[in-house]
Structure formats: structure tokens, C-alpha cells
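Quick one, T. Sequence first:
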Amino acid sequence: MNGRVLLDTNILVYIYDPLDAAKQAQAIAITDRLIRSGKAVISTQIMG
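C-alpha cells:
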């Protein structure tokens, strides 16, 4: 294993969804931690 984590679209949506502040905060924290550690990966299908 290479230690990378594939970010799902749900996490990306929760970052911009102000309707559930708890999910939004958790999504931001998780994504921030993964990006800072260099482990976050987004597939081309998700970007599409």
C-alpha cells in the first residue's frame, strides 16, 4: 500500500454545505489533515 487516501465526492460536498455545520467542520478537518500530510488523492472521475 502507498498510504494514499482517495477523497470521495461526499467529503468535498460537505466542505461547501453550510446546512450541517458538524459534517462541514469534520470534512474540512479531515481534508486539511490529508492534504497537509500529502496523502489526499482525487480521481479524475470525481473531478469530472
